Fold this protein.
Amino acid sequence: MGGTTTDVSQVLGQMNGIVQIEFLTNVGVSIVTSVVKAALAKANTEASDYIINEMIKNRHDREFIDGCINDASQVDNVIKEIQSGINQLSEQVME
């Protein structure tokens, strides 16, 4: 798993060959970033994908998250939405 997509392969035998590769373009980190972007919009905050990625990685660092959001009343909601996006991605990967 990596990048913006999840790549699924069927491997033949003991890594003697690859039978089929599928690119699941609808399953990737963009699931999380789009949910976070929507939550940030409600918090009157624009952020680049880089900043959103840093927020996701540092989601347990309340001080960091506070510093990224303009509307302090929306911090808890943004944190909740980060986790929601992560849960959605996890469910998609497991399907």
Observations:
- Residues 75-94 form the longest helix (20 residues).
- Residues 1-13 have pLDDT under 50 and may be disordered.
- The beta strands are 6-12, 17-24.
